[in-house]
Design a protein that fits this description.
The protein is built from three helices and six strands; from the N terminus they run ββββαββαα. By secondary structure, it is an alpha+beta fold. The chain has a five-stranded mixed beta barrel with strand order 1-3-4-6-5. The relative contact order is 0.18. The chain has a domain of about 100 residues: Nucleic acid-binding proteins (OB fold (Dihydrolipoamide Acetyltransferase, E2P)). Helix content is about 20%, strand content about 40%.
Length: about 160
Amino acid sequence: MNRVCLVGRLTAKPELRYTNSNLPVTRFSVAVNRTFANAQGQREADFINIVVWRKQAENVCNFLDKGSLVSIEGRIQTGSYDGQDGTKRYTFEVVADSVQFLESKSQSQSRAQSNYNQGYNNMNSNPSPYDYQDTPSNDVNIADDPFADFGDSVSIDDNFLD
């Protein structure tokens, strides 16, 4: 069985393209946080390449932006090609069957503004590696919960829209 489920944030605004047979397609990458910290106590992320086709590709391009939180279900697809220098190159990507938007546009814009303000205010501060808490906390900040006022989730299957 080849199934993948990811939750992460877009690393850039996706761009819509069309194949020679006029099928919409978009490629983008998603930053997915790892569940553990490195030796310096910092969390790292993996950057996963995603491919989305048809109406879902159009929706992704119309409604998502850099930093948007998404859930992706799909399958891993690998491939290879010969590089210009003659060496064999290997590719790895997730072909998405379903992309769910996990935050509203207003939440996304609010987060972007907050990140901008936080970055501006912390330009001269150096975080300590000892500030990291390795154990989960029971203190939950509702303001940081992307699902707090999201309501019902919407999942649209490509076959339904065609």
